[in-house]
Design goal:
The structure is a single chain. This protein is an all-beta fold and 176 residues long. The protein has no helices and 13 strands. Strands 1, 4, 5, 6, 7, 8, 9, 10, 11, 12 and 13 form an eleven-stranded antiparallel β-sheet that branches. A two-stranded antiparallel ribbon has the order 2-3. Strand 7 and strand 8 form a beta hairpin. The chain starts with 18 loop residues before the first strand and ends in a 20-residue tail after the last strand.
């Protein structure tokens, strides 16, 4: 499987007229007046120029929930491990943070576009819309605990894994 084919569905549930909207991208940014490295992307749903919340869904073709619960500043979080690309030596995981509600449990198998929770503002967030989804992709070696991904360990730019196909125009909707 090609790297850019790993993400199969938008992490946010969308419907006609509703678009995922990135409010903070992966990489260096100014946060609370200081330069900071953001290990994921923050997003909301945009509908007729209004920012809205949304259920979150499995972005992989098939995944196992390997973490579900509260995790420090990230608040209520879920980590999915992709079943089609993970091996005994490395795992590709997706982190969904600041959730209001978690629908599933550790060990559950979920499939592409299955709802797994609802975006929120739990944990420590100074986000301009408060309720949002912090989404990240990490590549972890076999001996690294999966919860390290929430802190940014092994993080990669989600757009390398095919996220861009869910945004139009190509990520020109960043808010600083």
């Amino acid at each position: 499987m090609k790297l850019e084919e790993i993400i199969r569905a938008c992490p946010l549930t969308t419907q006609d007229g509703y678009e995922p909207y990135i409010t903070s991208n992966y990489g260096t940014r100014i946060y609370n007046g200081k330069e900071d490295f953001h290990h994921g992307i923050d997003m909301v749903i945009k509908y007729q120029n209004k920012m809205m919340t949304s259920p979150v869904q499995c972005c992989f073709e098939r995944a196992t929930i390997v973490f579900a619960g509260a995790y420090g500043n990230a608040g209520n979080s879920i980590i999915l491990m992709d079943q089609s690309t993970s091996t005994r030596l490395q795992r590709i995981v997706a982190c969904y943070c600041h959730l209001e509600t978690i629908y599933d449990n550790v060990g559950d198998i979920v499939i592409q576009s299955e709802q797994i929770g609802y975006m929120g503002g739990t944990g420590v967030t100074h986000h301009q819309y408060n309720a949002h989804l912090h989404f990240s992709i990490s590549v972890l070696e076999k001996d690294i605990p999966v919860d390290k991904a929430i802190s940014g360990y092994g993080a990669r730019d989600p757009f390398l894994f095919g996220l861009e196909k869910f945004f139009k125009p190509k990520v020109k909707n960043l808010v600083s």
